[in-house]
Design a protein that fits this description.
By secondary structure, the chain is α+β, with helices and mostly antiparallel strands. The protein contains 3 helices and 5 strands.
Length: 98
């Protein structure tokens, strides 16, 4: 499914049933998109809503995750997301999105 940057979508639409999806950091989602032959990157705003922030290909996926990870809290605050103060960002998965 083709999304545009800045679009807020249902999490169930963002995470494809037959493709790759991963939450690298708390609140940062990456999901394959066959129509792009790449990946959508999103920030989770609620249990069922995701803000699409970028797209990437497999070669640049890790770089894009590293770019967006420090901005998760800021973006979530801008959209009024209330996070549990006990939740901390965890390290990256070692699995590559290929």
């Amino acid at each position: 499914m083709h999304f545009h940057k800045g679009q807020i979508v249902d999490k169930s639409d963002f995470i494809t049933k037959d493709g790759f999806s991963k939450e690298y950091y708390e609140g940062l989602l990456i999901a394959s998109d066959a129509s792009l032959n790449g990946y959508n990157i999103g920030i989770q705003l609620s249990e069922d809503k995701v803000l699409v922030v970028d797209r990437t290909n497999a070669e640049n996926a890790r770089e894009m995750v590293d770019l967006w990870a420090p901005r998760i809290d800021q973006i979530q605050r801008e959209y009024g997301v209330k996070r549990d103060p006990g939740v901390h960002i965890t390290g990256l998965s070692t699995r590559n999105p290929e």
